[in-house]
Amino acid sequence: MSSSPSPTARVGRLAVLAVGLCWLAVLFDGLDMFIYGSVLPHMLEQKALGLTPDQAGDLGSYATFGMLVGALTAGTVADRIGRKKLMVACVALFSLASALCATAGSVGVFGLGRTLAGIGLGGLLPTAISMVSDYAPRGRGALTIGMLMTGHHAGGILSAYVALWVVEPLGWRAAFWFCVLPLLFVPVLVGFLPESLSFLVAKGRGEEAGELARRYEVALPTAPAPAASAAASASASADSQVAAGRWNSLAGLFRGGEWSQTLLYWLASFGGLLLVYGVATWLPTLMRGEGYNLGSALTFVVLFNLGGIVGMLVAGRAADRFGAPRISAIWFALTAAGVFLLSVHMPLALTFAVVFLTGVFLNSAQTMIYATVSIRSRPDNRATAVGWTSGMGRFGAVFGPWLGGQLLAANKGDWGFTAFALAGLSSMVFIGIAALRGSQRTAGSDSEQKLVGAH
Questions:
Q1: Contact at 8 Å (CB) between 397 and 68?
Q2: How high is the pLDDT of residue 287?
Q3: What confidence score (pLDDT) does residue 176 get?
Q4: pLDDT value of residue 175
Q5: How far is CA 40 from the centre of its chain?
Q6: Distance CA 384, CA 75 (A)
Q7: Do 75 and 384 touch, CB atoms closer than 8 A?
Q8: pLDDT at residue 116, rounded to an integer
Q9: How far apart are CA 388 and CA 393, in angstroms?
């Protein structure tokens, strides 16, 4: 063993492979998520499928409702069948659903396609976060998750350019055909993405985990405590064992005084995702309503997502040092200020700067909620914890696009920025309370900081 690579090098080799493949999957996730908002101004202008503003808001909510279903079920399913299999299924699902959108002849069929795509999108993100958390170097968990989420915003940038280059000459359907291309990535995931080592160990597949660990020269994680499966073992039937295992994972989020922290994270995630998906769906349309042409409105999408990439890297680094919940609270406060300023008429250069900075703070504020939950969860329960936090937040994601559509249909588009800013303030309050409670619980020691950086 003396000639083997150092522990840091060993972890780095496997982390690069796992994070790199997950990053590409998340990029395609971002492309499919943002493409609707990017092509929406064109669809409304051309009255594609007879679309009206309130119907457009409903369609945005269909996708986020699908994401709610995907997020709520993904964690439990991933903890049972493996994160690799679920990631492959999610990429295939949202790619095929885009083909349904591209061929839709009515709003109903298009909505079905967006709902199915949402299930795949909602399932992928928490699964990918859980996967990279397994392989992140010690003390760099939040930063690694932040790096992963840059792929989501790179996909958002790509969606704006797809809308600019494809929609005008070929129509809106061509943009959704472009979103079918990630289906070609499925064989790559099948062939090269490693399964989660902690999942394999937790499921008693030690031989398979050992082979994977030897291939990449990494240490195996420790097996979960026997108590983790006590409820399932007490059951006489296999079905009862499965059910008990699922409920045991969920009940673990509320044991030992954790219920208040769990609810605070869920409420913060609700406001954060209302803000994220409300802005993602309506930013180009709202900015066009402020007098900008389609090209300029899509430039705001690019700047918003460029800010998201910068924010993920900055917030991840800061969260590893100061704590993810604290950084999230500060970021939400700055986001609320930025979103509110977009309702105020400003010179174009200043508007560009505000959109960029809003992207910096908004997207990473929500991700730091996931980082907190992921890093503070046990490996065998991590996917369930992240999935349910994301899933509860998806109720806000469903509400955000619908709210924007209703305000626009009532000719009150300017109120959209105010409503989204208030959502950011609410998330600041909830995650701030969670941060204070965490500080009180670990007062007099550095245990909280160790927890944020450990796995």
A1: yes
A2: 76
A3: 95
A4: 94
A5: 22
A6: 4
A7: yes
A8: 94
A9: 8
User: In 3D, which of 205, 141, 55, 15 has the Cα closest to residue 451?
Assistant: 141
Do residues 89 and 143 make contact, with C-beta atoms less than 8 angstroms apart?
no
Residue 321, number of CB atoms within 10 A of its CB: 14
Distance from the Cα of residue 168 to its chain's centroid: 30
Q: What is the C-alpha to C-alpha distance for residues 207 and 209, in angstroms, rounded to an integer?
A: 5
First to last CA, the chain: 24
Look at residue 244 in the predicted model and tell me its pLDDT.
55
> pLDDT at position 444, please?
36
Stretches where the chain sits below pLDDT 50 are 1-11, 225-240, 242, 442-455
Q: How far apart are CA 358 and CA 380, in angstroms?
A: 35
**DSSP-derived secondary structure for 352-377:** HHHHHHHHHHHHHHHHHHHHHHHHTS
Encode burial over 202-223: b for 16+ CB neighbours within 10 A, e otherwise: bbebeeebeebbeebebeebee
Retrieve residue 221's tokens: 């994680």
pLDDT given at position 177: 95
Tokens of 66: 């699908």
- At 5 the three-state DSSP class reads coil
What one-letter code names the amino acid at 57? G
pLDDT attached to residue 295: 65
Give CA separation, 133 vs 16, 116, 262, 382, in Å. 12, 27, 19, 9
